[in-house]
Amino acid sequence: MKKFFWGVATSSFQIEGHIENDFTQWEKEGKFKRDGLNPTYDNGSNHWIMWKEDFGLLKELNVNAYRFSFEWSRIQPEPNSFSEKALDQYERMIDYLLKNEIEPFPTLHHFTHPIWFHEFSPWHTEKSIDVYFEFVAKIFNRFKDRVRYWITFNEPLVWVMAAYGEGNFPPGIKNLNLMMDALYNILIAHSKVYDLIKSSSQNFQTGIANHFIVFKSDRDWFLLDKAVRNRIHKFFNLVIPDAFITNNLIVSLPPILKYEKEINLNNKIDFWGVNYYYRLFTKFKLSLSNPFYFYTKHPETDTGWEIYPKGIFKVLKMISKYGKPIIVTENGIAINDEKIRMKFLRKHLKFIFKAIQQGIDIDGYFYWSLLDNYEWLFGKSKRFGLVYVDYENEFKRIPKESFYYYKNLIQIYNQKLDVISTENKVV
To answer: What does residue 293 show for φ and ψ, rounded to 5 degrees?
Structure first.
């Protein structure tokens, strides 16, 4: 059996601090002040300064992998200017991981951009592809002798929906056709980066971390609720994986959106990253402009999400049909009750192990997140971390009960994986 990666996941902007990018710019301009929410960045979790202490926690947790991201605005503060100082620190971080036998899983794009990006080369324009490629090539050429696994984008559909659909993220353009053009360019950019990485070594593995939601019709007896469920499921969960197989980017959500464009992806992906958190219910709405309604029926977490562990099994089974290895790149819960967090971990890992037992090719699991952090539109009020961050007391780190619980689960499941490996060996 292949090595199984046990890890935790973070993103640069959410934890690093000391960053000026499109999100901090929006905060200064008051553009996040909506619906009573007013997220304040205030240096995230101060990881850029405290990374050695945080990596010591990784070692204590006994994980063998760590997912993080490179902060684009830190590395390329101006269109034609790269910061060697920033790259030097990322190099020290990667070297520390490798020294401690922790596999680095960097994400190249995790929602944020330099301040100049949206004016200079917004994602709905073709120019964005070359600009992103230039940034990635700089990183790849620096670290290709040390990094084997690359994640090109985190949740690209979620980002374009937030940035171009709802207008909650920069650049805040509400235009569904431009949203799809942006997604198209992101996927082309992935393809171009995939070719770059493979040209260096066929052994390098490149994937995308996609967000998947389990959708269920509110009234199983009502055909229109089911029709809404099927349309939303096909759009949100399958539009990107399908595009890699069919070479067509197709969305059919009448009367809201219809989009179809040929896209030569040719299945250029080595693994699918699965980000899974919750289930939503779907309902038909009597509306000529938008008949699609979806909601949380049983809010149980501090973010108002339902805890539905069986959903991760359903998602893994669904994505396995695309014929690529799977890595659970995010799975976590925002809660202050540690008993609930530990139960969340136990139940989700139970269903992941069930999927492995049924022959689904799963190569790793990353809990979201190592640290309490800045959670996008929620700010610091939602705590996903295995480690408590005391924002009022110099960002002091305090491992939670779930930190040690996860460490113990890793040991237990490693033994179970060894049994499966032994049973599958050909004598």
So the answer is: -135, 130
Residues 6+ apart with CB under 8 A from 374: 13, 14, 15, 39, 41, 44, 45, 380
300 is catalytic: no
The active-site residue out of 155, 260, 306, 375 is 155
CA contacts within 13 A on the Cβ side of 280: 20
Q: Are 375 and 335 in contact (CB under 8 A)?
A: no
Average pLDDT, the chain: 96
Summarize pLDDT for 369-411 with one digit per residue, the tens.
999 999 999 999 999 999 999 999 999 999 999 999 999 999 9
Q: Which of 71, 103, 330, 375 is catalytic?
A: 330
The CB-based long-range contact list for 410-413 (8 Å cut-off, 24+ gap) reads 410/6, 410/62, 410/63, 411/62, 413/6, 413/349, 413/353
Quote the pTM value: 0.97
The CA distance from 192 to 172, in Å, is 26
Specify the DSSP element, H or E, that contains 273: strand 271-284
Q: Give 302-326 pLDDT, tens digit per residue.
A: 999 999 999 999 999 999 999 999 9
Residues 285 and 140: their CA atoms lie apart, in Å, by 47
DSSP state of 377: G
Q: How far apart are CA 389 and CA 373, in angstroms?
A: 8
Q: Could you tell me the CATH number of the domain that includes residue 159?
A: 3.20.20.80
DSSP string across 181-234: HHHHHHHHHHHHHHHHHHHH-TT-EEEEEEEEEEEEES-TT-HHHHHHHHHHHI
Count of structural domains, the chain: 1
What is the mean pLDDT of the segment spanning 77-106? Answer: 98
Are the C-beta atoms of 179 and 161 separated by less than 8 Å?
yes
Please choose, from the candidates 156, 191, 158, 163, the residue with its C-alpha nearest in 3D space to the C-alpha of residue 178.
Answer: 163
Helix (H, G, I), strand (E, B) or coil at 150: strand
Residue 262 annotated as catalytic: no
78: domain range? 5-424
Cβ atoms of 270 and 207 closer than 8 Å:
yes
